[in-house]
Amino acid sequence: MTTMLDCIRKGALVGHIVLDKAKENTDAMVKILGDLKEIDKIYLIASGSSFNAANCAVRFMEKVSGCEVFAYQPNTFSKKSVYQSDAVYLFISQTGTSSLVKEQVLKVKEMGYKTISVTDDSESPIAKASDLNISIEVGGEEYGFRTEGFDATILTLQMIGLRIGLEKGKIDEEAYASYIAEGYKAVDHMPQVVDDALKWFEENKEDLQSLRSLLYYGGGELYGIAVEGALKLLEVPKLYLSFGFEAEDGIHGPCYAFNENDAILFLSDGKKDDVYARSMVSFSKNELGRGYYFGPNTIDEKDLKITPVSENFIALEYAPAVQVISYMMAIINNVEVLPMDKRVPHVSSKYFQTHNG
Q: How does strand 68-72 pair with strand 87-92?
């Protein structure tokens, strides 16, 4: 049986497919949107892991497209009162069955604006409701805990932003090709991060297992990874509290609530937010007894050295590390991590259903 770890490892393979088909998969978008030179805003509407992926992609999309890019959860988006005709509306759901995302597709269509879904299933309710579906190219994911699909969603959104930038004249063909090459470089680094994270986990598993909570920090696109890491730790082993904080915002109050059963894990690219990273991890190590830095400028042997090979695709390079932690925290606690078709429905399903199309 394929394991969740196998799915984590497949992130690099799927990344190659997304990059290989970057232009092919966005040709229809260019056709239905027409003159993209008039577009100056991009709205990303998504829930859960798809929303976290959107937050990972926002900065790059804005940089290469020359558009303002906004990530909204569908319930927040539904309460907006101003919508623009000079915007691209992207509705993101890996399964294509998120009920509220579909509602927003229909709402925007009624306004007369084009709707583009980003899903893994062209026959899903959201894909069918939209004017166009762009595939994330995963081809189905056995586990409900999104891993390869999360990675592919980030990269697909980045490719959409890149194509919009090319069509608008924000970047030229040479720059486009350079970004694609950089994407391949980042994707090819992912298997090494998986192996390094597994080794790091083995060396620190006793300390990690005894935690009450693990608090993830990250800035920029790594904020999306921090929130996704926290979500994965909550939903896979189902034994630990976890929250994802923005690099600087987490210093404003949450740290006052931490105790010796907690630890901070800070994801840093070694650049602007590194001062926060080293300060918070040092606090966690010295005052709480445990703390972990993931990035190029490790503090001690308890940290995981990740040296990004890209500037614009670092979210993809760090994603496998937090995915590995969630899976391994389940394994060391003897929690079965089963595929969707073998899993007993969670008790929450008696009270609410958010993915029924």
A: unpaired
